[in-house]
């Protein structure tokens, strides 16, 4: 479990104090940044458990010396979802391995009653026949994101420590035999350790009937640095991604650059040098990040993790729509982003064009 985060709600409060004198009375008032409850409009990420069957040396949620695990109880999950009403999407992701959650069937059933669609992110090592049966018999589960950082067995084993590429491959084949409605996506984190093998992913995906691979860039943090895993350089990313796109085009696989993909210059070069007929998926160039208006997440210890940045989690006072989606953390983020006071944590996150400088 990770306990050190570089940014906190206090950083946002300080920044908030520094911009208030430039704002009108109405603009200053945090209550003006509330969003209304609209059934089916918002999305929620949930970390069901911080336990994991793997021990990846770049894991965003690991930290040396903090081995405590937490697991959201099914009654906590029920309380949260009842308080939130109807959502658009619930994604079981963040933290540990969702397929390790002891009450996964109940969680899927509860979430099915509170969202239009469900999504799970998994390392896929536990996706055996029984698990495939459970997931493929959940009609609202529409998306399964499989974390895989290389289709080279040795690099995979070094990145996904404790996992085997052959197990993942076997599991996906078994899953696909049953699957009729769940969209499979591979997700790769780009680091200096796996950069030179990324071009092997499109053929791997195609061989398993997977049509989409997303790429995100490592955000370096204590655990990854301890294991000497760093970001790849922009030049390396550009050169390797051009090879990836070339392979993907041949294999009829779509490549998507996640919002946290890379600096603007890399995205621009890839855009310019890719065959327009291929249709590389690049996130829209937004003026600012609108994530806090539509999404938030809760970790397995029941705390709010406001978005996907490096902001430390915070206690939730009340399991209601206002208590979660209008938590002071989110009000502050909305206010600061709206008035272009981009917090330092957002600069790391790179989810908006202003921060991708
Ligand atoms: S599989 Fe995911 S949650 Fe588990 S250790 Fe690896 S990066 Fe962390
Ligand atoms: S840019 Fe900021 S508000 Fe948007 S997702 Fe990243 S950390 Fe959250």
Describe the 3D structure.
The protein is of the alpha/beta class. The chain has 14 helices and nine strands. Strand 8 and strand 9 form a beta hairpin. The chain has a nine-stranded mixed β-sheet, covered by helices on one side. The chain has helices at 9-19, 25-28, 74-84, 104-112, 129-136, 153-159, 165-178, 201-207, 222-226, 234-251, 264-273, 321-325, 328-338, 344-349; strands spanning 43-46, 87-92, 115-122, 141-147, 183-190, 212-217, 254-257, 295-298, 304-305. The chain is globular. It binds iron/sulfur cluster (2 copies).
Task: Name the overall outline.
Answer: globular
- Rg measurement, Å: 20 Å
Low-pLDDT ranges:
none
Question: What's the total helix number?
Answer: 14
Number of strands: 9
Q: In order across it, which strands form the biggest sheet?
A: 7-6-5-4-3-2-1-8-9
Mean of all residue-level pLDDT scores = 93
Structural class per helix/strand content? alpha/beta
Ligands in the structure? Answer: iron/sulfur cluster
Helix/strand order = HHEHEHEHEHHEHEHHEHEEHHH
Strand percent estimate: 5-15%
Major beta sheet, specifics?
A: 9 strands, mixed
- Helix fraction? 25-40%
How far apart are the first and last residues' alpha carbons, in Å?
31 Å
């Amino acid at each position: 479990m990770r306990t050190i985060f570089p940014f906190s709600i206090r950083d946002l409060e300080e920044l908030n104090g520094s911009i208030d004198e430039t704002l009108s009375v109405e603009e200053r008032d945090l209550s003006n940044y509330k969003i209304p409850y609209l059934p089916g409009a918002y999305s929620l990420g949930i970390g069901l458990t911080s336990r994991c069957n793997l021990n990846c040396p770049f894991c965003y949620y690991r930290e040396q010396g903090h081995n405590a695990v937490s697991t959201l109880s099914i009654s906590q999950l029920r309380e949260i979802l009842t308080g939130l009403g109807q959502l658009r999407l619930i994604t079981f992701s963040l933290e540990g391995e969702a397929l390790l959650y002891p009450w996964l069937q109940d969680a899927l059933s509860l979430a099915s009653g509170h969202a239009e669609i469900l999504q799970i992110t998994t390392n896929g090592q536990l996706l055996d026949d029984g698990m495939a049966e459970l997931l493929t018999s959940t009609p609202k589960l529409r998306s399964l994101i499989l974390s895989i950082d290389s289709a080279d067995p040795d690099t995979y084993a070094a990145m996904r420590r404790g996992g085997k590429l052959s197990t993942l491959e076997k599991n996906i084949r078994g899953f696909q035999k049953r699957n009729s409605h769940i969209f499979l996506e591979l997700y790769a984190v780009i680091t200096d350790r796996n950069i030179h093998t990324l071009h092997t992913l499109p053929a791997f995906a195609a061989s398993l009937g997977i049509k989409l691979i997303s790429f995100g860039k490592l955000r370096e943090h204590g655990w990854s640095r301890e294991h000497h895993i760093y970001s790849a350089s922009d030049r390396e990313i550009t050169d390797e991604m051009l090879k990836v796109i070339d392979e993907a085009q041949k294999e009829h696989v779509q490549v998507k650059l996640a919002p946290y993909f890379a600096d603007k210059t890399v995205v621009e070069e890839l855009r310019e040098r890719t065959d327009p007929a291929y249709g590389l998926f690049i996130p829209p160039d937004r003026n600012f990040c609108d994530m806090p208006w539509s999404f938030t997440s809760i970790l397995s210890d029941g705390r709010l993790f406001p978005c996907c940045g490096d902001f430390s989690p915070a206690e939730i006072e009340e399991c209601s729509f206002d208590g979660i989606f209008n938590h002071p953390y989110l009000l502050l983020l909305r206010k600061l982003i709206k008035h272009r006071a981009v917090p330092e944590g957002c600069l790391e996150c790179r989810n908006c064009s202003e921060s991708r400088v």
